[in-house]
Amino acid sequence: MQKLDDILEVLERWCLYIAALAGAAMMTHVAVDVFSRTVLNAPLHGTNVVAARYYMVALAFLPLAFVSRNLGHMSVDVFTSNLRGGVRRLVDLFSTSLMLVYVGMLTWMAFESAQRRTASGEFIDLQIAVIPVWQGRWIVPLACGLLFLHVLIRLLRSLSAPDRESLQ
To answer: What digits encode the pLDDT tens for the residues 59-80?
Structure first.
């Protein structure tokens, strides 16, 4: 299981790097579009489509597993912060199991959607150009699948280490 976790960690880091590149590419693309539109009076057609269907999706979803690995998600533990021992462990196991189910369903639904959109060859018609957008649909199941595997490993480790107080 450690080898799989190490591989996932590398993939999560690469997804973070790709998301950072997508952010830089989006800023550059939009800046060039604004410059071209205002100075040259020639906007880049499809900037909003590419930004919404590729850049923003990558920025929002690709870093999820990396953030989860580094415990960077928001946590509101007003009711559980004073719990100790077995009760805290049960709450952590329950919440992690619930997250695993939710992320698993999200991954499956995103995968099915990506398959349908790929089969139909989804595109956006801008009247002067056609932009295929089905490829961007695969970002979500990829990112959610990595998050699912990460949460699964965290849950399995917690179940096999009964002396730990929580799932951190």
So the answer is: 999 999 999 988 777 666 767 7
Instruction: Return contacts of 25-29, CB within 8 angstroms, 24+ apart.
Output: 25/55, 26/51, 26/55, 26/56, 26/59, 29/55
Mean pLDDT, all residues of the chain = 90
Q: Which amino acid is at 142?
A: L
CB 13 within 8 A of CB 2: no
Give CA separation, 39 vs 42, 43, 45, in Å: 8, 10, 15
**Number of other CB atoms surrounding residue 58 within 10 Å:** 24
Compute the C-alpha angle 63/66/69, nearest 5°.
150
Q: Which pTM does this prediction carry?
A: 0.86
User: How far is residue 117's CA from residue 134's CA, in Å, rounded to a whole number?
Assistant: 6
